[in-house]
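Researcher: Re-running this chain for the archive, since the previous output was lost when a drive failed. Same request as before.
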Amino acid sequence: MKRKLKEETVIFISVLKWVALASITGAIVGVSTTVFVKSLNWGASLNLTRYYYLTIPAGLLISWFIIRYIAPRAEGHGADKVIESVHKGSGRIRPVFVPVEFIRTFITLTSGASAGKEGPSAQIGAGLASMLADILRLDGPDRRKLVVCGISGGFASVFGTPLAGAIFGIEALFAGSMLYELLLPSFVAGIISYQVSSWLGLAYFYRPIAFVPVFSEWFFIKVVFAGVFFGLASFILIETLALCRKAWSWLRLPAWLKSVAGGAAIALIAYVFSDRYLGLGLDTIQSAL
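Model: Regenerated structure tokens:
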């Protein structure tokens, strides 16, 4: 009886501990995400001229200088760096990553370049959680769990998807599998972060589905083929990006000149075809729906 009572007491205290830590992390990340997204929206509103995307080369050049001389490890997609830090760095993220990721993403998107906000938001959330772990002197598994809470909170509040954000954070630690002891703190961090961002006035795209399709064999077959098609499209995109990066590395040009050339190429494509593919792309998605 004493042993059973002791085990239940330890579990209860552990639950309280992680609810508190996840709530604090979620609140901090919710505030930071709100400031981050509202800054991006304000930066996008500055693009008042028709050919605003001509500033892309300058924006990418500034972003390259920031990465080259301030935080070289911030290069690439933010989510990849977060996953790497969790697996290889025991959840330790340099505090400088938070402002660097914030500033370079703001400059990139404000200049008109096409980029996402999920990677930077996850990296900012993870960086803030790592800073909180430093303050609380957490190490080992506790630090990694807290960083996962930061990832979940960042993803949940930037898209308004608390449950999906929690799952994303967990899979960042264990790709393709679940660790059930992380479910509660990840869900708490995601929900708190989303609620804080909502309270601070961060608006999300909301479009309720006003119909329920009739389920049939033919409908199921169409869904299966759609899944295959979208999977192939994603695969082609990822492999094309990898191939372009490899080909880009073969060019014997200074790195700063490559950033300018890349920005000029993006501006040229926008001028010839359309500027609807620039920025976050949310307006294009909403208009399509």
